[in-house]
Specification:
This protein is mostly helical. It is built from four helices and no strands. The radius of gyration is 18 Å and the shape is elongated.
Length: about 110
């Protein structure tokens, strides 16, 4: 979880570069809003980041077909509801979405093993 924005970092906002995809998209959206007509990226750029810029400007480059479909993600997408109960516990733990009681139960399981 990004401590500044509260956004999930997994799986598309992991900071593999200087900026995350979400940060690049926010930059491009702000640039578009203030009227920037000519925009690009420099050092540390990657094709997935430039695609974010293009999409923020209303373009659909051929690479958009590779955009992440988060509805299929086993952790946070629609598919998550189709996973077993054990998978639900793993998902809650991974995303930090569990109650204090669930945390204590997990802690007890670890200590007992």
């Amino acid at each position: 979880m990004n401590r500044f924005t509260g956004e999930l970092l997994y799986p598309t906002n992991i900071n593999g570069y200087i900026c995350t995809r979400a940060q690049v998209r926010a930059f491009a959206e702000e640039a578009r809003k203030i009227g920037v007509q000519y925009i690009g990226l420099c050092c540390g750029n990657a094709s997935n980041l430039l695609r974010e810029v293009a999409e923020a400007y209303g373009r659909t480059p051929p690479a958009s077909r590779y955009a992440t479909d988060m509805s299929q993600n086993i952790m946070i997408g629609d598919e998550a509801s189709r996973v077993s109960r054990a998978g639900d516990r793993v998902r809650k733990f991974s995303l930090g979405h569990f109650t204090e009681e669930e945390r204590k139960q997990m802690e007890k399981l670890v200590l007992d093993s």
